[in-house]
Amino acid sequence: MSVRTDHPTPRGQTAAASFLAPPTADVAELHATFDPLFEQIAAGSAEREHGRILPHEQIQLLNEARFGTLRIPVGRGGFGASLQQTFELLTDVGAADPNVAHVFRNHLAFVEDRLNAEVTPANEAWIVRFLQGEFVGGGWTEANNGTLEKLQTFVTEVDGQWEVTGKKFYATGSLYANWLDVLGEGPEGTPLTALVRIAQDGVEVIDDWPGFGQRATGSGSANYDHAKVDPENVIPLAQRAPYLGHFYQEAMLSALAGIAAASLRDGITALKARKRQYRHAAAETPTEDPQLLQVLGRVSALAFGARSALSASAATLDRVVEARLSGDEARIQHELVESNVAISQAQIVIIGHALEASTIVFDALGASGVSEQLRLDRHWRNARTLASHNPRVYRERVLGDWFVNGANPIESLTGTADHDATQN
C-alpha cells in the first residue's frame, strides 16, 4: 500500500476536477445568520481572557451554525461564500474574540485545501465530515527547533498501515479538534501531510502554550507515537492548494483587524463610563473633551484602515480562485504573485494599525482604563502575539526586493521562517 507522490500538483488542475465553484452567497444573509452569534461570543470575551477559560461553547456555537462550511458551494451543502466574505466574517469573529478566530484558522484552511482537491471518494468524505461539524486543528510546526527543511516528524508505512511519530508545537485549535493536519517526512524524504484522528492511542494534546496572548487557542504541544492514519488521509505536501500559505496569513490578519475593531468598541464604552475628569482637561466631561474624542477618532481610522487592507487583500485571493477555475496556468501564477504582494502589504498595515489602536486607546481613558475589570490590555497582548508569529520585517524586505528588483516574492520567502510561521 502506498501514497502517490507523482500526482500532478493542483497548480494545473481544472475547475471540473475540483470542488471549487464561483461564490454565490449574499453578504447581508451571511451577516443576518452570524452577527447574533458574534455578539454572544463577544459578551464573555473579557471574562474568558481573565480566567483563561477555553471557549469550547463558543467554538461549538459557530460549528452548529456551520461557520466552518462558509466556502463549501451551496450545491454541496455549504454557504457558497467568497474568500473576501469569509475573511471579513472572520474579522468580526476576531473582534468578538481573537482566540476563537485563530482556532478556526487551520480548519478553514483545510476546508479550502479540500475544495481545491480532485473529486474522489476520499475527498467527498471530507466534505461530508465538514458538513457534519467535524473540526480540524493544526500540526505543521516542528517542536524542538525543527524546520521544514529538517523535519523531525515522520509519516511512515508499516505493514500496510500508515503511522505518524513526532512532536509539534503551535498546534492551534488542537484542543477543539477531531482531526489534526500533521506535516512530516515520508518515504525517501518526501514531505507528506497526514490527517490524524485525535481520539486514538498515540496522540497526546497538551495545553502548554506559554504566550502572554492568544492564551485560549490550544496552540501548545501535540505529540504522536505511532498514531494510525488511514491511507486516503496521507497527502503529499506538493498536492496541497498552491495558495494555502496565502490563506493562513490572511486568516491571521483577520484576527488582527478584529482586534483593532475591538479596541475601538471597548474604548468607546470605557470613555462613556468615565465620570472623573482632569482639572486641566479641555472640557468638563470626558465625552465632550476634544482631545479624548480625537484619540478615539484616530482609533476608528486605524480600525477602518486595518479592515480595508484586509478586505482588499482578501479580494486578491478570490482572483486566484477565478484563475484556478479558468485553468489558465499563466494567469494562476500571475494572480498568486499579486496576491502574495497584497497580503504582505496588508500584513504590514494591519499589524501596525492593530498595535497602535490597542495602545493609544488608553490615552482617552486615564488610570481607570487599566482596571483588571476592563481587561483592555488583552487587545495589545493578543495583537502582539499574533504579529509575532510571522515577523513583518521579512515581508518588508521581500516587498522592497519585488518593487525594486522584480524578485518573485513567493520564491524569496522559500526557505525562510514563512513556511512554518504561516501554520502557527
Description:
By secondary structure, the chain is of the alpha+beta class. The protein has 3 domains: 11-134, Orthogonal Bundle (Butyryl-Coa Dehydrogenase, subunit A, domain 1); 139-239, Butyryl-CoA Dehydrogenase, subunit A, domain 2 (Beta Barrel); 244-421, Butyryl-CoA Dehydrogenase, subunit A, domain 3 (Up-down Bundle). It has 13 helices and 8 strands. The strands form 2 sheets. A 4-stranded mixed β-sheet has the order 1-4-5-8, covered by helices on one side. Strands 2-3-7-6 form a 4-stranded antiparallel β-sheet, with no helix packed on it. Strand 2 (154-158) and strand 3 form a beta hairpin. Helix 9 (329-360) crosses helix 11 (392-405). The longest helix has 37 residues, at 290-326. The radius of gyration is 22 Å and the shape is globular. It starts with 26 loop residues before the first helix and ends with a helix.
Report the span from N to C terminus.
32 Å
By CATH, the superfamily of the largest domain comes out as Butyryl-CoA Dehydrogenase, subunit A, domain 3
Uncertain runs with pLDDT below 50, 5 residues or more? 1-16, 415-424
Largest sheet: 4 strands, mixed
Write down the CATH topology of the largest domain: Butyryl-CoA Dehydrogenase, subunit A, domain 3
For the largest beta sheet, what order do the strands appear in spatially? Answer: 1-4-5-8
Number of distinct beta strands:
8
Structural class by sheet pairing and helices: alpha+beta
Instruction: Tell me the number of helical segments per DSSP (H or I, 4 or more residues long).
Output: 13
Order of helices and strands: HHHHHHEEEEEEEEHHHHHHH
Strand content: 5-15%
